[in-house]
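Memo to structure team: turn this sequence into structure tokens by end of day. - J.P.
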Amino acid sequence: MGYREISFKLPADYKDDQLRKNIKKNLGLKEFSYQIENKSLDARKKDNIHWLVRVAVLSKEIKGDSPVMSPSLHISHQKRREKVVVVGSGPAGFFSAFVLQKAGFHTMIIERGTDVHKRTAGIRAFEKTGIFNPVSNYAFGEGGAGTFSDGKLTSRTRHISKERQFILSSYISAGAPEEIRYMAHPHLGSDNLRIIVKNLRDDFLNIGGSILFETLLEDLKIKDGKVIEAMTASGGIEADYFIIAPGHSAHETYRMLIRRGVAFRTKNFALGCRVEHPQEIINKAQWGRESLPGVKAAEYRLTSRGDGNLPVYTFCMCPGGVVVPATAYENTNIVNGMSRYQRNGKFANAACVAAVHPDKLIGRQATPLEALDWLGALEENFYRYSDSFQAPFCSIRNFIDSTAPSEIVESSYPLGLKPAALWNLLPFEISNSIREGLKDFSRKIKGFETGSIMGLESKTSSPVQVLREKSGLCAGFKNLYMVGEGSGYSGGIISSGSDGIKAAMGIIENNYSYL
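Reply from structure team:
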């Protein structure tokens, strides 16, 4: 069986038979099978928007051998007596536990939030009543914060090809569309994620793993550099290894770890708001038309750096999505974005944030605890502005010109908007930089200045980072790992899941080189 790779252009609304005809015409084959290797949209010329597709073709009519497959993640299974407790069921926590259970460890996940079914019901109730539920919300629960997001699977992290392949294969087996394997910008959608994380949980349980929901890690018992027990309201859980994957919103978990001698440092993070536009404005700016058959919705990724200002960029762009109340605590007000697989909502939204170090915001060299306190106070201040989960907002034009905020506008945000001089609620360095960034973005995307800007986007990354050894262990500890976004070393589904897998492989192989 011979093998060839071939690339070509296809119309935005092409069908599978057209793809087969192109392969047949280009290679002159009668019988063959093929697999899409990569697919990306080329929209640089609005009068010629098309897909760039690369396919791998197999046929007896092609001379030569099939290619050598890329090495996959090798998980050696054997009967083991060691127990592992994993704290958190987001991508980092789940995939570390999944790999360890496949390797023969006795693995338990403890998750402070509810399972995805109860979590979905809790979020719906929150958006209907405005009454916050501490265990069923956008921040905590099965699958982590990413369960209710766009489910983006892109990552710039290097040297994680084996881990990425394992994660994508696991998602596909659990019901994700096959296209996530080859799309240049794959995403799952929150509607698919609710099904996928439940199916992955079943896979984990079926191979002997266990999960305790609504179980908050309250403390750790430590002796001679080793954690011997995880303390919860239901009692202690002993284990041989402990992996902490709390996400970046669990500030009380950070504080507990610092109290117990786990070393952290401050680092750059991002802070800002969320912008929203009618999706048709973005489609027209990017494509030159309000819709494009064969493509769900137009996206954008913008960066800016004015002279003397902080770098500003858009993050977690959700085409056809909604802005959601993503607070982790009842006295804070934070927004995030979410979209479903079809991305067919009326609005587009994205974080618009400035990158900054906590020291610059606090005005001196800050400790990790001081950075957490400062950020928590800002999140509480946004809540106090409306004394509710209404999102402070203004038009982008208001923000640019520092003019009185306009009246309420139509929005996807479910708990209402409250007009605000939003730039005054943010630190000066942040608001001034975002103002210059918005001016720049308005030059790059026609109509950008007509949108709205709202809320506080404070969870794009963590302001603190745990100190880790090359083995992946927390510095000074013999059996404690911290992984995922909460560790400060990763961000997003793929890089966080890979971070968890590397910790698991470190435990399996002992001498695994982690960094």
